[in-house]
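Quick one:
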Amino acid sequence: MIDTIRQGLREEGYRVSISQLCRWFGFPRRTWYYRSVKSEHRVRPELAAPIKALIEEEPSFGYRTVAHLLGMNKNTVQRIFQLRGWQVRKRAVGFRPRIQALPSVATAPDQRWSTDLCRVWGGRDGWLTLTLVIDCHTRQLLGWHLSRSGKASTAASALEQALIARYGSLGRVPEPFLLRSDNGLVFTSRRYTSLVRSHGLKQEFITPLK
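Output:
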């Protein structure tokens, strides 16, 4: 704006200094003279490549999980996420059968199983993901799997171990029953839901806490 006004006055035969124009319009002179010296943010390809490969394989992973699995600084990974626009901003919304918020009561074995995963500290191995499967009636631990990553394969391995422990082999169960879990991305993934259906189980998801 200052340059435009100055040029217009010069064409009309008036020479006015930048300092005078800044005083007239109450515009700080140092702001007009300031020129940004910051260079454009660049992402090193050798850092971005493994991050991109991992989130393409598991799109639900956030920057903390990616940083842990790759052994990288989480602030660096977060900055690359921001510059490349790789954040998971909103989860997909779909139909998920919710159970009523009532106490879970199973009157017989193999009527309802429950599964969940958690993070446990593994010492030198860092944070690990533990998935458990229990019978809601007997409270018996049927299957478990410990892994460095929280992928759907970890939950699938725990479920398969539970089926082998109960029935001696993998296959469709004699009578369909319920498998209860939360609505996490692992338990609603295509791979896990397909596995559950292939064995004749029916999924149900707990009501989220408010």
